[in-house]
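cron nightly-structures :: item 1 of 1
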Amino acid sequence: MKNLNNMTIKISSSICTGKATFGVFDQLLAGNFSVKRFFSTNNSSIVPLKVYENADSQKLEILAENRGKSGIYMGKNLNNGKIYVGSSKDIKRRLTSYYNMSYLVKESSMYINRALLKEGYSAFSVVILEYCSIENLTQREQYYIDTLQPDYNICATAGSTLGKLHLEKTKEKISEKKKGTYSGEANHFYGKTHTEESRKAMADTIELSGRVISETAKKKISAAMLGKIFTEEHKANLSAAQPNRKKLSVLDTETGKETIFDSVAAAERLMNFPKDSIRANLRSKTKSLYRDRYGFKFLD
């Protein structure tokens, strides 16, 4: 790691324009000089505090020195010069996630994660741009994004993209970069098929999941279906169109009578049971009779 707090050098404004600013870091990482401060054309200063030249061999050092510290960090691809700017209230915890292979694979939609998976940690350096209070994280991150124009940041706005509406131009750019990413051989399930056992397990999960629909969603569905009348034939066709739906056996232990229904919903409706009561009984670990009388089981 190079300490950047001792020497100051003067850099011409022709260097410090947009992404060219990191020509300075290129020289820094090459070992040509140490930098305390360099200036952009708008006279706003950037003060890189620490530079770790190898994210792989310096992993322990990076994590130890940034534990519990909030601030702005940057990752740089040493092979092509592309950079990523991020912020965190605990830089150590955030960087730890990048060292987690499962996280990189799970969040492979992020350009920086794809680059790490493809080229490895040794191809990257880590720069601590500054430490700052948690309250100022978003503001300071935005400053560095605007100044350095990082290549790996999908969103040009600091903070979460949740609920953010992209401009049409931005949408087209994102779409173009993602085109073909998960199609053909690039898809993780390419050339594979589910076994019958897997399909059955998934069907059972769906049947027993007991998914809860919000009241708002129920009202929207009700409004959309208002006035529609389905014939018994139509209902039967709808039921038959769902190949994963299993028939249900209902045994009345008092009479010994067994009744077969096309679905759980049909059984609840025709026997006047409360909605989801049968599913709840099927999920129960005690496997006791419903109302001390009825036993349920699916038929293959």
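cron nightly-structures :: done
The first strand starts at residue 2 and ends at 3.
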